[in-house]
Amino acid sequence: MRARLTLLVVAVATLTLLVFSIPLAILLRNAAAERVVSAAEQEAQVLSSIVATTPKSDMENSVEQLNATSPYLVTVFWPDGSVIGVEAPRSSAVDLAAQGHSLTAATADGREILFGVRMPDDGHAVVRAYVDDSQLTAGVGRSWLLLGAIALVLLGFGLLLASRLARVLLVPLADLAAVSNRLADGDLDARASAEGPPEIKRVGTALNALADRIRDLLEAERERERERVADLSHRLRTPLTVLRLEAEAITNPTERATVDEAVGEVERAVNAAIRDARKPGRGATECDAVAVVAERFEFWSALAEDTDRACSVSLAPGPLPVKVSAEDLAAAMDSLLANVFAHTPDGTAFEVRLWARSDGGAIVDIADEGPGLPDAAVFERGRSDGGSTGLGLDIARRAAAASGGQVVFGAGPGGKGALIRLELG
């Protein structure tokens, strides 16, 4: 934009200077020519008055002295055809002046100023003063150079003014753009400096007010979210306690251990939700995807064995760092694996695959051999067909988005079943 503004000023300044400079240059040239012609006319006119009153025999010395001192060449044509002064051709203009006229005529390389002088013996002499082209344009080149220098100075001043104007306008605009980008990236502490013209100051003030309002709304929403999560978490404490007591009443040690482990996992998740509600700041934002996926697969494989599901896992060599916390990745894996158990019949096999992305991060595939996804668009909106709230998919989607990835839905191997791909940055 700065280059375009400078180019616009240069174009306008150049056009303005041309509009004024060209006529002024022509005027200077014409004025110089008129000044020289006027001076030559004055000399020829003075000589004409002398010719009218002085005998021919006395004029030769006077004309020679005049040619020696004057910059203009003088010639006198007498009625009898004789000539004194500088040799000059008798042109048609001289013949016209010999009839008693006075005129200025152009020649091949200058101008001749002619005065017809009536002589006492009934005839007309012609006084001719000659001005060549070099005399007509004397000093014009210097005047044009001065005019060009003035034009360049004015053009330079215009460029300086354009640069100053661009700085006054564009620097605050660039600051506004930078602040807007920072706000768009989530930096709610970004503020614009109230500088520049009044209009830009008002825009900066409005942008700062908008940033303050956004931060206030987000803080209020976070506070309400923390209150809702905390309330829900505390409500779950009582049924968890009941489940813990019921688990202790189971006599079969193996079944009691399985139920205890499941209740413990739910309790840990509830405690983590309570901690997050009380302290919204995040912990570590990176984890080893291999370790987390392996740990969650091992947990769910026990339930798969109870429901006669064949399951397998394929893990890339670790460690494989991803930009998401271990808690969030574990919650995402739990939500996706829980969907397999919730939406496929017992005995349906599933597979978990983990490998590294070429540009950093990891990809986790959870594929099953169930009935598949009847409407992938419904799942992408965060709600399934089976009366589910879709919160599990939202958990996975948020974890992927926080790391710079996404969740992709598709068909399982060979077009059978469902495939949910968790891409992590």
TrEMBL record:
Keyword Zinc-finger: no
Record EC number: 2.7.13.3
SUPFAM superfamilies documented for this protein: ATPase domain of HSP90 chaperone/DNA topoisomerase II/histidine kinase, HAMP domain-like, Homodimeric domain of signal transducing histidine kinase
Catalytic reaction equation(s): ATP + protein L-histidine = ADP + protein N-phospho-L-histidine
Family annotation (Pfam families): HAMP (PF00672), HATPase_c (PF02518), HisKA (PF00512)
Superkingdom, natural source: Bacteria
Cofactor(s) listed in the protein's UniProt record: Mn(2+); Mg(2+)
Lipid bilayer topology: Multi-pass membrane protein
InterPro entries in the record: 2C_sensor_his_kinase, HAMP_dom, HATPase_C_sf, HATPase_dom, His_kinase_dom, HisK_dim/P_dom, HisK_dim/P_sf, Sig_transdc_His_kin-like_C
Subcellular location(s) per record: Cell membrane
Sections of the chain in a coiled coil: 207-235
UniProt keyword annotation of Amino-acid biosynthesis present: no
Keywords attached to this entry: ATP-binding, Cell membrane, Coiled coil, Hydrolase, Kinase, Magnesium, Manganese, Membrane, Nucleotide-binding, Phosphoprotein, Protein phosphatase, Stress response, Transferase, Transmembrane, Transmembrane helix, Two-component regulatory system, Virulence
Transmembrane segments: 144-162
Limits of the HAMP domain: 167-219
Domain Histidine kinase: 231-425
Chief location: membrane
PANTHER family named in the record: SENSOR PROTEIN CREC (PTHR44936:SF9)
Name of the protein this chain belongs to: Signal transduction histidine-protein kinase/phosphatase MprB
Organism: Glycomyces rhizosphaerae
Lineage: Bacteria, Bacillati, Actinomycetota, Actinomycetes, Glycomycetales
